[in-house]
Design brief:
Elements (H helix, E strand, L loop, with lengths): L5 E7 L3 H12 L4 E4 L16 E3 L15 H12 L5 H20 L4 E2 L12 E4 L2 H16 L2 E3 L2 E9 L2 E9 L2 E12 L8 H8 L7 E2 L8 H8 L4 E2 L5 E7 L20 E4 L13 H4 L3 H6 L6 E6 L14 E3 L2 H8 L3 H14 L34 E13 L2 E2 L6 E3 L5 E7 L17 H22 L1
Parallel strand pairs: 1-2, 1-9, 2-6, 9-19, 10-16
Antiparallel strand pairs: 3-5, 4-5, 7-8, 8-9, 11-17, 12-16, 13-14, 14-16, 15-16, 18-19
The protein binds flavin-adenine dinucleotide.
């Protein structure tokens, strides 16, 4: 790449949203430079951790079965966000997903049959063969063959704006600063989930116990700069996608294999051995994203998912083996919990379980009675040794604080007017659609939709 050149489009970031924008703009004839702060082997941000994209479809579509109409998708989103969503942008996201699968395949992405376990996604989510890493590699290969220029190890550290117009970005590459000019820019550099100081500002000392599931490179530098330069802020710094992951996971980048999917099959207790939420409230894909916040609200941000032998093999096993014991008392000792307190909680739970027909594929009739909090589905006595436990910590996936956009993916300024030449896509604007909560597979849906729109609109802008 040539930093002295004026590119038609400069793309900030190198994940899914960035590559969707870069590919689209390049196909429309623009000269495109992608600046990715990670080195080549780390390229692709959180996108390289993904497995699937949620897509609407009016009939069977590729690997997707039956139909998943717009209205059902919208209602699912409405439920998890509690209405904290921009309906116009949300419906745009949803409608566009129907076109994504063929476009993705055209750019080298392959799909596979859905996975089983506690995921009920065969109808709604298209799984990438080889996961997000293969998707990212396919997009980079397509981008390179189309002539998109890519600068790895290149971090955006400053932006020059004249009012609502982008002029240049200062990037740091191998300890040297360069000023890069372009006619348009797409901000696709993720949220601020890897910025531990910013997380602490938002969450207080509890954030010190959070683990970051994805890339260590999404530090929110571009987001902060855009806010400072007058971009409209959307979302709340404490909102985001946060799941319960194995407490033994690394601080960064543990990825999907650290998620604990056993929760809905057993009980979850805090460090005082108390249950604190209905583990069987809804299907796991619709509930897993609330468990990080729930654990974050408990003492020392630690909890324990406890199951018995009956549940083994019924969920996708995480990478760490469970802690195991032949009695609940022994399990308490292994977990360094109060033995009597854990035995009491499990005994009370078991006594409250009403007879039912266990079926993990439906919202079954196995529930507790007279217990607070209740377990409303899949409640079975924890009585069959050996007993197993997974220690849980909040695992931040991505944050929702972002910049406002309009339907053309143009970044909005503080006065609500669109910027002249700044577009945004992916996590950095996901808060427009996700005020809170999460729906499995919508992160990639948002990034693909607005990445492609940003690429198209950048091309329209450059052509005049
Ligand atoms: C473990 C895990 C599993 C997930 N699974 C799914 C799933 O199955 N389906 C789904 O829909 N979503 C999933 N998500 C969420 C999904 O990853 C995101 O919603 C989506 O990838 C966001 O894409 P993006 O392009 O906005 O961000 P990213 O893919 O994170 O890309 C951001 C890029 O910006 C770069 N960057 C950051 N700062 C700078 C800077 N200052 N200068 C230059 N570059 C910079 C980063 O290096 C990175 O390449 C998952 C996330 C994680 C962590």
């Amino acid at each position: 790449m040539d930093f002295s050149r004026v590119y038609d489009l400069l793309v900030l970031g190198g994940g899914n949203a960035a590559l969707c924008a870069a590919l689209t703009a390049r196909r429309a004839g623009l000269s495109v430079l992608v600046v990715e702060s990670a080195p080549v082997h780390y390229r692709g941000g959180n996108s390289r951790h993904t497995r699937n994209l949620r897509a609407m479809h009016s009939g069977p579509l590729d690997v997707l079965k039956d139909a998943y109409p717009e209205e059902e998708y919208w209602q699912d989103l409405l439920k998890v966000t509690g209405g904290l969503t921009d309906e116009r942008l949300a419906r745009m996201t949803i409608r566009n997903t129907e076109q994504h699968l063929p476009w993705m395949k055209d750019h080298g992405v392959k799909f596979q049959a859905p996975l089983g376990g506690t995921l009920h996604l065969a109808r709604t989510n298209a799984f990438f063969l080889g996961g997000g890493k293969a998707l990212v590699n396919a997009y980079y290969a397509a981008a390179e063959s189309l002539g998109v220029e890519i600068a790895y190890d290149t971090e955006v550290i400053d932006l020059e704006m004249q009012g609502d117009r982008f002029v240049s970005a200062t990037v740091l590459r191998h300890s040297l600063e360069h000023v890069v000019r372009a006619k348009t820019v797409v901000a696709a550099s993720g949220g601020f989930e890897s910025n531990l100081e910013w997380l602490r500002e938002a969450w207080g000392p509890a954030a010190d116990n959070f683990l970051i599931r994805g890339t260590p490179y999404n530090r929110g530098k571009v987001l902060k700069l855009l806010h400072e330069k007058g971009a409209k802020s959307v979302g709340d710094a404490t909102q985001g996608h946060c799941v319960a992951i194995d407490a033994r996971s690394p601080k960064f980048d543990g990825g999907i294999v650290t998620r604990v999917d056993a929760v809905s099959l057993g009980i979850v207790v805090n460090k005082h051995c108390k249950r604190f939420y209905d583990e069987g409230e809804d299907f796991w894909p619709k509930r897993y994203a609330i468990w990080g916040r729930l654990v974050a609200a408990e003492a020392d941000q630690i909890a324990y998912s406890i199951i018995d032998a009956k549940s083994m093999g019924k969920f996708m096993p995480p990478v760490y083996p469970p802690l195991k014991a032949s009695s609940i008392g022994e399990l308490a000792a292994v977990l360094k919990l109060d033995r009597g307190a854990l035995e009491k909680t499990v005994a009370e739970f078991n006594a409250a379980v009403r007879p039912g027909t266990f079926d993990h594929t439906i919202l079954d009739d196995c529930a507790t009675a007279g217990l607070a909090p209740a377990k409303t589905h899949w409640a079975r006595a924890i009585d069959t040794p050996p007993f197993f436990a997974y220690p849980l910590r909040p695992g931040i996936t991505f944050t929702y604080l972002g910049v406002g956009i309009d339907g053309k993916a143009r970044m909005l300024m503080d006065d609500g007017k669109p910027s002249a030449n700044v577009f945004a896509a992916g996590e950095i604007m996901a808060g427009n659609v996700l005020g809170k909560g999460y729906l499995a597979g919508i992160g990639m849906a948002i990034g693909t939709t607005f990445g492609r729109i940003a690429g198209e609109e950048a091309a329209r802008h450059v052509r005049g």
